[in-house]
Amino acid sequence: MIEDVPELKTAVIENFGTPCAVIDLDVVERNIEKAQARCDNAGVANRPHIKTHKSPKLALMQMAAGAQGITCQKLGEAEVMANAGITDIIIATNLLGASRSGRLAALQRRLPLKVCADNPVSLTEYSKAATQAGRALDVLIECDTGQQRAGVETPAEALALAEIIKADPMLNFAGLLFYPPVDGWPQTQIFHDEVIAGLDDLGLSATIVSTGGTPNFVNIDKLEGSTEHRAGTCIFNDLMMVEAGMATLEDCAFQVYTSVVSRGGTERGILDAGSKTLTADTGGLDGYGRILEHPTARIHKFAEEHGFLDLSKCNNKPAVGDIVRVIPNHVCVAVNMVDQLVAVRGREIVEVLPVAARGKLV
Amino acid sequence: MIEDVPELKTAVIENFGTPCAVIDLDVVERNIEKAQARCDNAGVANRPHIKTHKSPKLALMQMAAGAQGITCQKLGEAEVMANAGITDIIIATNLLGASRSGRLAALQRRLPLKVCADNPVSLTEYSKAATQAGRALDVLIECDTGQQRAGVETPAEALALAEIIKADPMLNFAGLLFYPPVDGWPQTQIFHDEVIAGLDDLGLSATIVSTGGTPNFVNIDKLEGSTEHRAGTCIFNDLMMVEAGMATLEDCAFQVYTSVVSRGGTERGILDAGSKTLTADTGGLDGYGRILEHPTARIHKFAEEHGFLDLSKCNNKPAVGDIVRVIPNHVCVAVNMVDQLVAVRGREIVEVLPVAARGKLV
User: Fold this and answer.
1) Domain A26-235 maps to which CATH number in 3.30.9.100, 3.30.70.1280, 3.20.20.10, 3.30.1600.10?
2) Largest CA distance in chain B
3) Angle at Cα A341 formed by Cα A336 and Cα A346, nearest 5°?
4) Which of B97, B119, B336 sits opposite A13 (nearest CB)?
5) Which of B94, B103, B361 is best to mutate for the A interface (most A CBs within 10 A)?
6) Contact B304 A263 (CB under 8 A)
7) A101:B17 CB<8 A
8) Chain A contacts of B125, Cβ < 8 Å?
9) Which chain A residues are Cβ-neighbours of B16 within 8 angstroms?
10) Nearest neighbour of B338 by CB, restricted to A93, A338, A359
């Protein structure tokens, strides 16, 4: 919550010190329910992306709320989630390092994974990993319809990959993975329809057609043929989501509690949270996060362990020793800095959640 | 080393996958010796800042090479280093969170620490922590001579803090901590001399006068009265140090091995290392790191797990499946992303070093 609760700040600093990464479980639960309802209302399955929280407990809460399965971005994340008992996992990227190190095969031996590819090299590696595992891999083809991120850029390329998958007994064609630009759903429909027609000619069908992204909740019912949606950030939200109109400050479940540790002159202040806590990722916004207690104080620069405040527009300036709460611009990378999240409910600390899938590079 | 060794790349990906954070121990040892020699030649003690590597083993190598002690930026880092047997530790920041959580007192009970302050609130908290510990704390006064980071901005403020320390039986005045701008050593000398004269009037003397920063090695003998220097980045170096003229690419001991996982069109490529591996910290440089195999390929943007390449100036373009090595702009924040460093010597992997002090927020 965004209400200032002095006794909660005192409890956080006395039990954990500062800086401290805190999540409000009431807000988390509300956000989980809202995402599920958005998918339910659109008639698509919910497959939350766990890259945002990297916590098995929170993933299990998403499953309990009705999610079909989860999305991971790393094999190491999938390992952690599989250990927590989650069995329906898409890993939404070309996995070359995990394939060549044998870890993909090891996990595929334990449970059937769904992996993604946008090129033949990935398919070759997947085929080897599946052979090692003794179990065919389900493969989705990643398609780029304007983001200029990963993904094949034409239906013809998608169909060429589908043919390779079809010809390989160790690979099963499982569907298509899209991450459409927010304003790019019409062209995604055209791309999708052309691929589906081509697949039909090949005798293949897409069991899964996945769309993604929290900002794309506004479009969730707009792709005819889509079967599921994967969104990550919406479990916590952040200033980027507020800026995108997808959340209010009250919907931001993650806050960094930080102490004002220094004041240099009348216009300057220093927090004990810097780029090693909040990260240098601005998400395209101005400054490095919003201080709830001092919205006109601007975090204008970071050292590794310090956040530098410009207080020139701040009538009520913070004092050394004050504890303030910062909502980061981009929560996914901020959570990725910490080994644990302190969970609160209302005015009380209730538990500590390990960010168990953090640091899983592969 | 920067020579391309295909069998080392294969060994890294087959044993660890990609991305993988690798350090070359031959280069590390050379860098440690060079820093020690620079301090020895200037007649000041060497107190390396371990924030760069966060590894007890590397800290012990620095001690074995002749370091007087170490510098930490976090109480949590000092805990890890104390557990490794290092006893002479300066924590170079205002420790409010660690004081109020009781962790400063707990460590001070085990070994006498040196802490820093630039304001009276920190001194009050230190006095309480020292009382809890049953042992007086050594305190350095942090002085700002132009960086606009932490530190008192005038000699008068420094002396006011010295008086508070003098009056408190649980605090010992230990000296002064400077981080002069590279071109700001003359004004630092003036500041220093004025404080020393005032301290003399108070009957106090500065046992330690510490300067800091790898780029400041060029100035290391320029502050009359300085007793020691703390530098962090020089153990690994990075593109910022190359840009500052403090290192060559051959002196950069840390590299991220990463796979080319996708190629979108002729001018684009994607690495499996993004902002969750290399961080969004540009260090003021263009792009997000240098690819040794393709110096004209520009990492122009990150997603969380992807680095996006502009290959338009690249004659010899990388292919999907290639493993390339990236030297980051800012190594301190890149090391802070990973739980372990794979250590190589020449053409062989020799060990895995835990980044044991990573994630110690407090």
Assistant:
1) 3.20.20.10
2) 72
3) 135
4) B97
5) B361
6) no
7) yes
8) 321
9) 97, 101, 362
10) A359
Q: For residue range A94-133, what is the model confidence (pLDDT) as tens digits?
A: 999 999 999 999 999 999 999 999 999 999 999 999 999 9
Q: Residue B101: list chain A partners with CB under 8 A.
A: 13-17
Residue A265 has pLDDT above 90, yes or no: no
Beta strands B137-143 and B340-345: pairing type? unpaired
pLDDT at B266: 87
Nearest C-alpha in A relative to B305 = A73
* Nearest residue of chain A to residue B14 (CA atoms): A101
Tokens of A24: 């409000």
Cα-Cα-Cα-Cα torsion A321, A4, B361, B239, nearest 10 degrees, comes to -90
Q: Cβ A150–B98 below 8 Å, yes or no?
A: no
Predicted local confidence at residue B265, as pLDDT: 80
Select the CATH number that applies to the domain covering A6-24+239-353 from these four: 1.10.10.10, 2.40.37.20, 1.10.510.10, 2.30.30.230: 2.40.37.20
Name which of A319, A332, A338 is nearest B361 (Cβ-Cβ).
Answer: A338
Q: What mean pLDDT do residues B192-206 have?
A: 98
Bond before A19 cis per omega within 30 degrees: yes
CB contact under 8 A, B101 and A303: no
Inter-chain touch B15–A101, beta carbons under 8 Å: yes
As its CATH architecture, domain B6-24+239-354 has Beta Barrel (2.40)
How many angstroms separate the first and last alpha carbons of chain A?
35
| pLDDT above 90 for B1 | no
